[in-house]
Amino acid sequence: MPSMPAFEKEMRQEKAALLIMHQNRMCVYDERSTYSDAVPSDSTQISDPRIDFSAKIRNEFPSVYFLDSVLFQRSGTQMPDAASDLATSLSGLVGDISANREFVSLYFEFVHPWLPFLSKRRFLERVLNPLGAKQIGNMLLISTMKLVAEDIVDDNTISPLYSSVKLALLRLEMSGNLEFRTLQAWIMISLYELGHGIYPAAYLTIGSCVRYARALGIHLSIENSFGSSMHDELDSEERRRSWWAILLLDGFVHLGCPAALEVNLPPTSDSILPIDDSVWEQGEQELSRAQLYRLTSPLTATMGRFCLTAQAGILLGRVFQHVNDTVNTDEFRHQEATVLDNTISALTQVSREEGRHRGIGVCSPTTICFSARLLLHDEERWQRSGSRENRIGLSPSRDIVDEIIGNMLRLARALASCGKCGAEQISPFCLETMYRSGMIFAQRFASEGDEEAYESFKILKLGMEATSRRWKAGNLLKARDLTGIL
């Protein structure tokens, strides 16, 4: 047999060496290869703190929590503290919290007033506390707060911090994390996605909030006025407010497609509403003396902003149910629509009075009521089969619509004149009403040739463009104008 050529022998030896190396090495996957469309190419921003998915993920969650809840409670089993290494990764992206807390101040000044589901006292004492900040739930909450509070740089909503938070939430799910601060981070990231128009992520994330909260039993907090032995009154109120925030976001995300509303168990007539915001901020001693309101309580301007916002969210949900009703008779739907319209109108008046009483220029419950009422009087958005005639049976609604779009026109004019300083105080809940108002003016111009309506449309577009510096979803009316789709 002839001898093997020297070069062929060398090639075989090299292949054997490579095979040995392959069998003894660990494969490391860089998440940038999978998420190349979402993560910026500037690797210097994320090379060190990025989440390493090559690490082993272990799920030590006690499955008995779901399989036999009674056994879980009686056995004294504890929830695991999962994925603590993620906290260090997120910390590298957030920066030195002890030296730079400007985003915390921004959050509590501009976001907290219209969605106050975080206890400021508990956040400062327990979450920002250096002894607890490296816990993964706390670090996630801090990271998402930074996302929501700060302006977007270079129009990049899919930033390294956002991408890392989403990956961290996925990994926590895989490792069996179920913890209240993580839930609040879920709420915060869904608010970020909603405000910046990141879909379908916003829709899916809010759905995850609902299931995550139910798994923790947070939905029960609005039915029980007594705190558990594990939570004091301040913690119980924070849990209650977190559930109301989820319900509010879950309703609002369906405004653009009301026919796609999922069927969730609605609050009962005895459900407990959030207490007055100013009382809640004062601490636990004041909480024990606070007046408790339920859904059946008469409307007053002293209920507090978030209490009224929660009720506006409930009415919006009832409008969704009404427009999707294919069972009841026309007579019943006529009566129901009239009651809904009157109730929304009453809440609007109380909300505006509350805003004047507390010096609030733009009140979230007012704009949510506007959105609900516009939907109630806009049959084209109902997406139902059959004749459109007499679906509601209400009297002509032009006067009602004119009142709403007139209010939003004044708001848009103020935003366009003062720019970013006014937009910082605007919540995403205002954007939908502004958008619908702009569309109504544009459609009137297209159908009636009303030049004044066109000028009003342009003012609303400028107002929304001012809000887009804070919330990117504000660009929607501009997109309508560019496409010419009315």
TrEMBL record:
PANTHER family: ZN(II)2CYS6 TRANSCRIPTION FACTOR (EUROFUNG), ZN(II)2CYS6 TRANSCRIPTION FACTOR (EUROFUNG)-RELATED. It comes from Bionectria ochroleuca (Gliocladium roseum). Pfam families: Fungal_trans. Its main location: nucleus. Signal peptide: none annotated. It is found in: Nucleus. Keywords: Metal-binding, Nucleus, Transcription, Transcription regulation. This is Xylanolytic transcriptional activator regulatory domain-containing protein. Transmembrane segments: none annotated. Residues 105-289 form the Xylanolytic transcriptional activator regulatory domain. CDD domains: fungal_TF_MHR (cd12148). InterPro entries: TF_fung, XnlR_reg_dom.
